[in-house]
């Protein structure tokens, strides 16, 4: 067979193979010295690959992978949610008498502190209820010091602008000697420079006159009498 006839036969075989192959098939080059072939035109825009079987040039077919959307870009951004920290503390009240009780405190973020108190063993009626400056009870409730007073004010009612931070007014005992009270106050935080954690609650023998009784002790203790029970706060 002449060289020209060989080229014609090879060309026909190339056409048949190319039609049978999928469009995405990639052909890899391998040199073959069996048959000479003409060089590809210099102006060809697409590279030519050679068949491993025939050593003849094949033109690469265009191919591209489908684009897949990124899950990161397709997911909508979610807004940040700031959750306020909830702080809690508790104090167990005891004394030399039969009076005892539990006080719990809860503060959400920088908001006011909610105080819940339950005290038993009291005489019926009003009893002064204060937060004192120390948590020390080594010598009984007298070791707790004066009312907590970081702003150096005189004694007053919880709603007064001029008051000790520890002035929480009175609790009321029923006929069975049980007092239950809830108080919400802005001056007794559970964190920060004026934190009340580690200080003591004290229940007094008498009614607190809220600084308005005209007694010599009205503007310091509310003339609330002796200290029946006390307890230092512990953070939960």
From TrEMBL:
EC number: 1.15.1.1
Coiled-coil parts of chain: none
Stored InterPro entries: SOD-like_Cu/Zn_dom_sf, SOD_Cu/Zn_/chaperone, SOD_Cu/Zn_BS, SOD_Cu_Zn_dom
Signal peptide: 1-18
Cellular component aspect of the GO annotation: chloroplast
Transmembrane segments: none
Domain spans labelled Superoxide dismutase copper/zinc binding: 99-232
Top-level class of the enzyme under EC nomenclature: oxidoreductase
Cofactors demanded by this protein: Zn(2+); Cu cation
Superkingdom to which the source organism belongs: Eukaryota
Catalytic activity as recorded in UniProt: 2 superoxide + 2 H(+) = H2O2 + O2
GO molecular function: copper ion binding; superoxide dismutase activity
Pfam families hit by this protein: Sod_Cu
UniProt keywords, alphabetically: Antioxidant, Copper, Disulfide bond, Metal-binding, Oxidoreductase, Signal, Zinc
Function: Destroys radicals which are normally produced within the cells and which are toxic to biological systems.
Subunit and partners: Homotetramer.
UniProt similarity note: Belongs to the Cu-Zn superoxide dismutase family.
Protein name: superoxide dismutase
Organism: Musa troglodytarum
């Amino acid at each position: 067979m002449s060289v020209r006839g060989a080229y014609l036969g090879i060309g026909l075989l190339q056409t048949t193979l190319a039609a049978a192959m999928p469009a995405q098939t990639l052909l890899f080059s391998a040199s073959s010295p069996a048959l000479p072939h003409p060089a590809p035109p210099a102006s060809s825009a697409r590279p030519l690959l050679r068949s491993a079987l025939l050593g003849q040039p094949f033109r690469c077919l265009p191919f591209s992978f489908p684009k897949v959307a990124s899950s990161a870009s397709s997911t909508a951004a979610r807004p940040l949610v700031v959750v306020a920290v909830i702080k809690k503390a508790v104090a167990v009240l005891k004394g030399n008498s039969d009076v005892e009780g539990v006080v719990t405190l809860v503060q959400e973020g920088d908001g006011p502190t909610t105080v819940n108190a339950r005290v038993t063993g009291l005489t019926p009626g009003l009893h002064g209820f204060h937060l004192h400056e120390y948590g020390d009870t080594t010598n009984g409730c007298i070791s707790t010091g004066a009312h907590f007073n970081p702003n150096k004010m005189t004694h007053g009612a919880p709603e007064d602008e001029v008051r000790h931070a520890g002035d929480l007014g009175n609790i009321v005992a029923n006929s069975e000697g049980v007092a239950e009270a809830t108080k919400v106050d802005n001056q007794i935080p559970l964190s920060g420079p004026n934190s009340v954690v580690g200080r003591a609650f004290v229940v007094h023998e008498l009614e607190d006159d809220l600084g308005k009784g005209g007694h010599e002790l009205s503007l310091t203790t509310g003339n609330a009498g002796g200290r029946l029970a006390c307890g230092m706060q512990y953070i939960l």
